[in-house]
């Protein structure tokens, strides 16, 4: 790879960009350490940033984007005043979703995910009991997964998928634990009540639909072949898909909502073989909450990705892409005509 880089540098014209990713190495988290590492690598690879550097991307930490002493600011001052600063788009998406879900009911789902993960991770006995119960119910039980992580969206999505897959076994096991003597019985009963409430079930499957779309967007943003010119169009497509869910439920929510609304007179519906009472929420209240969270998510995305509509350089990449697409269509039309 180093030889390939040297060959590229020899070609004229040659321009480069820098990418900073998060690190757990404390020696590289300070500004001076990062700048020193950049200088060292540039020297090793015979790169003169004053002639070559066009753009730099990093997460939104102040160590990178500080207005006076941030790493990117220092690079502009020392090497390339024209350098374009790009806040990592995958990181932007993570931040906007944390903003959108803050102080909503979904944080209670997050809290239960964390508590269930800790419950079965710390107790081999409880985990063994849950697996044995799953076998008795003829279900394959997955170990609860950690909902927090570097990739917030995908960690949360996987944790929700596991929770839904284990729902029946978890419900039965928590209720059994609540009926047995022990110091955890009150805690387990509280978990069971929350897990088997209609409000929790409806919001859990809605959460799955929302994160399924957002996880796809996040994966697109992490792809090596992604170009800046396609970011805005991909964001708009994802927002459109999310806004559609205000009126048309997604694949996880749709069957559950149908069961919930069709059994309103009975006051009970079934989810994963568990009887769920209607009393904790109403159809109208849930519909309002669904519209509100979709609006919050799409608004936060618009705010975090506003530069792709307002920054003249980033906008020009979109225009260039549209021009290339139009040229390609024209060439295709001409060849078909001939």
From TrEMBL:
SUPFAM superfamilies named among the record's database cross-references: Ribonuclease H-like (SSF53098)
Protein name: Zinc finger protein 862
Taxonomic lineage from the root: Eukaryota, Metazoa, Chordata, Craniata, Vertebrata
Domain of life, source organism: Eukaryota
UniProt-listed InterPro entries: RNaseH-like_sf
């Amino acid at each position: 790879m180093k030889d390939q880089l040297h060959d590229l540098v020899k070609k004229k014209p040659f321009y480069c960009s820098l990418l900073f990713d998060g690190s757990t190495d404390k020696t590289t988290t300070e500004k001076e350490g990062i700048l020193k590492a950049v200088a060292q690598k540039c020297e090793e690879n015979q790169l003169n940033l004053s002639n070559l550097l066009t753009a730099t991307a990093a997460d939104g930490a102040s160590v990178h984007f500080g207005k006076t002493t941030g790493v990117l600011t220092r690079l502009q001052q020392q090497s390339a005043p024209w350098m374009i600063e790009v806040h990592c788009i995958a990181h932007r998406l993570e931040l906007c979703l944390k903003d959108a879900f803050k102080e909503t009911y979904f944080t209670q789902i997050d809290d239960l995910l964390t508590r269930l993960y800790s419950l079965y991770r710390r107790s081999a006995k409880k985990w063994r009991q849950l697996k044995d119960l799953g076998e008795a119910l003829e279900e394959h039980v997955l170990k609860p997964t950690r909902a927090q992580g570097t990739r917030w969206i995908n960690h949360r999505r996987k944790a929700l998928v596991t929770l839904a897959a284990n729902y029946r076994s978890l419900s039965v096991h928590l209720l059994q634990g609540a009926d047995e003597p022990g110091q955890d019985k009150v805690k387990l009963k509280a978990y069971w009540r929350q897990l088997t409430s209609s409000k929790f079930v409806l919001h859990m499957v809605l959460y799955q639909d929302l994160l399924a779309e957002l996880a796809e967007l996040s994966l697109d943003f992490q792809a090596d072949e992604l170009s800046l010119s396609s970011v805005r169009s991909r964001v708009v497509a994802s927002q459109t898909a999310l806004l559609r869910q205000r009126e048309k439920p997604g694949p996880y929510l749709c069957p559950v909502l149908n069961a919930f609304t069709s059994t309103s007179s009975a006051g009970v519906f079934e989810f994963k073989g568990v009887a769920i009472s209607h009393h904790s929420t109403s159809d109208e209240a849930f519909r309002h909450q669904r519209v509100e969270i979709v609006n919050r998510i799409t608004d936060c995305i618009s705010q975090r990705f506003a530069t792709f509509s307002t920054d003249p350089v980033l906008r020009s990449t979109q225009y260039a892409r549209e021009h290339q697409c139009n040229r390609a269509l024209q060439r295709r039309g001409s060849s078909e005509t001939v």
